[in-house]
Amino acid sequence: MSEPAIRTLGLTKFYGRHRGIESVDLVVERGDVFGFLGPNGAGKSTTIRCLLDLLRPTAGASSVLGLDPRRDAVAVRSRVGYLPGDLSMYADMTGRQLCTYFAALRGLDLPLEVEILARRFDLDLDRRIGDYSTGNRQKVGLVQAFMHEPELLILDEPTSGLDPLMQQEFYAVVDEVRAAGRTVFLSSHLLPEVEKVADRVAIIRNGRLVVVDEVATLKARAVRRMEIHFGRPPDPEPFAQLDAVRQLDRSDDGMTLMLVVEGSIDAVIRCAARYPVHNIVSHDGDLEDVFLDYYRGGSGQTPVAAERADPATEPAGRAAEERPVADEPTGADESPGRRQPAGDGDGDGDGDGAAMDRHEADGDVEARRS
To answer: Mind listing the pLDDT tens digit for each residue in 297-336?
Structure first.
């Protein structure tokens, strides 16, 4: 049996006294589209950067495609397509030159693949990157991530800056990747996006995982809002006693019940069947309801989700924090000497010439550099 595409065990990263992520346990199976959900600052980008050895974890372990991200860094990056959450690219290159340069670093010649993706994303490859809009820079990032048909795509906020039409094209490309049996690990704070494309999802809060499950299973736990219009006023008490009913209101004339139901509505329907029913209006729950329920500390919250570690407390006995790998020579990324990256990033690269992410962490806390 092959190793999963991604596996983490107790993955932890502290920035001085401040927690980035702690005790993250994840398994992403090959062929899955996996959504990694959380608001800005929750720990999504920190997790991704640890997976790619762009940050060294404080504790824990991870594997990518069965390989160690640190020991096998070059092999991992040759098989992964990566889109950082905030791109920094060479402003005086055209989009075509940049993609050609990245392909050459991989030892590949991909003019046809680049052209096809550029057409799909409506990208003019012959304009200078410095002249691109935010959305077009994001398109360049997507092209360089997808162009070599990697086994695993790691995409951090991939639709940021894209208009709705291009978002739909991105979803179509992801569907094609899934159909080809390849894997996508997609971080986002956009719930409809994850609900649309993902098979499984993890929700991270304050650097800790609160749930990992299939999207369909999570949606089944979501609350739904129902309005039941009766032919005569029902007794609301039997409805209020049902385990699935979390909230019950009644219209002024008593002919309509408004219910908030969690899980199966079977018991509600059986109870309503005792009375003449004129109409039932059901507003199905979605992933957003589940997400907000976890973040508000709702009934679905696990103990680990409720825990709020003191940010002034470091894990006992942990070794002194290692510097981010960007401070160390890797020998894997040779940039053209005459060109400087566009943007004001810190220069952390992914080692194979892919676009660089200028943030070391999701939140406002930066790694303390020695």
So the answer is: 654 443 333 333 333 334 433 443 443 443 333 333 333 3
CATH fold group of domain 223-284: Alpha-Beta Plaits (3.30.70)
Every domain of the chain and the residues it spans: 6-218+293-357, 223-284
Query: Per-residue pLDDT tens for 135-153?
Result: 999 999 999 999 999 999 9
E strands, the chain, are 6-15, 18-28, 33-37, 59-64, 80-83, 87-88, 152-156, 183-188, 200-205, 208-214, 223-230, 245-250, 256-262, 277-283, 356-357
Q: What distance in Å separates the CA atoms of residue 344 and residue 263, rounded to the nearest whole number?
A: 48
What's the burial of 151, exposed, middle or buried (CB within 10 Å: 0-12/13-18/19+)?
middle
- Indicate the DSSP class of residue 327: G
Q: Which residue has the tokens 């499984």?
A: 200
- Residues 237, 243, 245, 247, Cα dihedral to 10°: 80
Residues 6+ apart with CB under 8 A from 182: 31, 149, 150, 151, 152, 153
- For 91, phi then psi, to 5°, come to -65, -30
Query: In this structure, which topology does domain 6-218+293-357 adopt according to CATH?
Result: Rossmann fold (3.40.50)
User: What's the pTM?
Assistant: 0.69
Q: How far apart are CA 289 and CA 267, in angstroms?
A: 21
User: How crowded is residue 154: how many other Cβ atoms within 10 Å of its Cβ?
Assistant: 29
Q: Give the Cα separation of 210 and 307 in Å (integer).
A: 10
